[in-house]
Write a structure and sequence with these properties.
It contains 21 helices and nine strands. By secondary structure, the protein is mainly alpha-helical. The strands form four sheets. Strands 1-3-7 form a three-stranded mixed β-sheet. It has a two-stranded antiparallel ribbon with strand order 2-4. The chain has a two-stranded antiparallel ribbon with strand order 5-6. The longest helix is centred in the N-terminal third of the chain and has 26 residues.
Length: 550
């Protein structure tokens, strides 16, 4: 059964694909006399709204850099550099943008003028309303109160008084409830590939309810997705044993070894282009092979080190590496920064340094490059079977680690472009939503352990002991989210909704115990300020700006 996938649109172009019929979308200034006349016009306009997901893919990649998971080193690429340093000021625009909302409003006003099949028009309107709602919820999570713009003539709401974050969230839920039954569970094979489904609506509702603390509604929405039978965790039959982990993992039996390699293969292949649109995917930004890089993605540039022709733009922190479980499912106890630096010895590590990476969570090996560790599936460009950190070199990690999660060498072309999709919502997140929400509402029960152990089992990890209290299970679930969803953008929202940011936004060090960046937190940072240019345009934002402490 086909899963929901979103075709990536560039800033000025849309993909033309036989399975999706996505054509060029006219820009904001179009001739009213020649457009909004045919069904094809409606399709092109809707595809232009879908462009939002291409932006969301890159935004999510950088989101973890606003947290303790990742470090972004280039301020010209992301505002995460300023934000993490405490430079959260109205002079910086942290993504206050109503372009997609304006496009959706125009679409919803114009589509009924087009002579086309009414059922198709109804579905198109539901898709536009979903994307508008998705955009609005993200804006409310970042900025709090917002103008509720529902007419094209209102543009970016410069004449509107902002309504509260709660009112925005209620509007988003009401929109999702209204469109839920106007979207199919799936589309016929080969038709309308890339369109939003009912499953995406239910999964997104579950996320909203979780983020807003409505735990009963959250686990019920997640349960609806689970019970639909449409999605499942991805597994592969192609077990990759080409990289030898015998020096890092103590295998107790042949079965144990097979379980490790199956779990490793399952998790790393989940994000590869050859498995695009797999059974775990609920909502994706989709990419296709393109040597010019218009419709493929450039994420390899941001993730890989200089030795792989990458820029090391986004790299994992020591805190994230420490968060991965031991192989037996227990918490890892890290050495002090000073001890690690001594053990690493500027590239001449002793056995104690390598012991940090022995018998750890399979997802660590699938996600992170660490010095003197195997490069796993990274083939064809590297010059060594061991990762070497070229400390201090250009386009090299400032921490000592690089991400290999999502760096898909199987789809990498000569220009370092890839065609693997970026999953915006996947089934593992739904299971984690269910586990967290049900634990918060009821406390531990067998269904929670089942949800968590499905995720752990897929990765070849041991299950969670069923002897947890509500409090200990809460911490397990939170860390499981951090590991499973690392580098996918969720940590940005998690440290804010859990109110743990003051505790985790710590100064960043590299593996030589050298300070890389000072991180600063003030509780007003839970929501960003509106950019000053928006306040100047709409003075009605001033009161809400002051209420946020800016």
């Amino acid at each position: 059964m086909k899963k929901i996938k979103i075709i990536l649109l560039s800033a000025s172009l849309a993909i033309v694909a036989s399975s999706c019929n996505l054509d060029r979308f006219p820009e904001d200034k179009v001739s009213e006399e020649t457009f909004w006349k045919t069904e094809k016009d409606a399709t092109m306009a809707l595809n232009g709204i879908y462009k939002y997901f291409s932006d969301a893919a890159y935004s999510n990649l950088y989101n973890d850099s606003f947290t303790d998971n990742s470090f972004a080193q280039y301020p010209w690429e992301t505002t995460a550099v300023d934000a993490s340093a405490g430079n959260i000021l109205p002079s910086i625009d942290f993504g206050y943008d109503f372009t997609t909302i304006r496009r959706a409003n125009t679409f919803l006003e114009k589509i009924d003028e087009i002579p086309m099949d009414k059922n198709l028009a109804g579905r198109y309107k539901a898709e536009a309303r979903f994307i508008r709602a998705f955009n609005y919820f993200d804006l409310s999570q970042r900025f709090g109160a917002l103008p509720l713009v529902q007419k094209s003539g209102e543009l970016d709401g410069s004449t509107l008084t902002p309504i509260s974050e709660t009112q925005i969230d209620n509007f988003v839920i009401s929109e999702l409830n209204a469109i839920e039954n106007d979207l199919p569970t799936a589309y016929p094979s080969g038709q309308d590939k890339g369109r939003i489904t009912k499953g995406a609506v239910l999964a997104f509702k579950a996320r909203i309810y979780l983020y807003t603390g409505k735990y009963k509604e959250a686990y019920e929405a997640a349960q609806s997705v689970i019970n639909s039978g449409t999605y499942n965790l991805f597994t592969t039959t192609l077990v990759d044993t080409s990289t030898n982990y015998d020096s890092f993992v103590t295998f107790t039996s042949a079965t144990d070894k097979d379980n490790f390699y199956r779990g490793l293969s399952n998790y790393q292949a989940l994000f590869w282009a050859k498995n695009n649109g797999n059974k775990e995917s609920i909502l994706e930004a989709q990419f296709v092979p393109d040597s010019k890089g218009v419709f493929s993605n450039s994420m390899a540039l941001f993730l890989l080190p200089n030795e792989e022709s990458g820029w090391s733009s986004v790299t994992p922190t020591i805190d994230l590496v420490n968060a991965y479980w031991n192989k037996d499912g227990t918490a890892f106890t890290p050495p002090s920064n000073a001890t690690r630096a001594s053990n690493y010895n500027h590239g001449n590590p002793n056995n104690a340094y390598l012991d940090e990476f022995k018998n750890r969570d399979t997802r660590l090996y699938a996600s992170i490059m660490h010095p003197n560790g195997p490069w796993s599936y990274l083939k064809g460009f590297g010059t060594s079977t061991l990762f070497k950190w070229n400390e201090g070199a250009n386009n090299t990690s400032k921490i000592g680690y690089n991400y290999k999660k999502m760096a898909d060498y199987g789809s990498l072309d000569e220009n370092l472009n890839m065609s693997n999709n970026f999953m915006l919502i996947r089934y593992a997140e739904v299971l984690l939503i269910y586990a967290e929400a049900r634990n918060e509402f009821f406390g531990p029960d067998p269904s929670i352990y089942d949800a968590l152990n499905q995720i752990r089992g897929r990765a070849g990890m041991v299950g969670v002991s069923n002897t947890q209290t509500k409090e200990t299970l809460r911490e397990i679930i939170r860390n499981e989210r951090r590991i499973e969803l690392a580098n996918e953008g969720h940590r940005f929202y998690d440290i804010r909704r859990w109110k743990i940011a003051p505790n985790v936004m710590k100064t960043v060090y590299d593996i030589t115990n050298t300070q890389v960046a000072t991180r600063v937190w003030d509780n007003r940072f839970y929501r960003f300020p509106y950019p000053q240019k928006a306040v100047d345009l709409n003075p009605k934002l001033k009161e809400a700006q002051a209420a946020k402490g800016y």
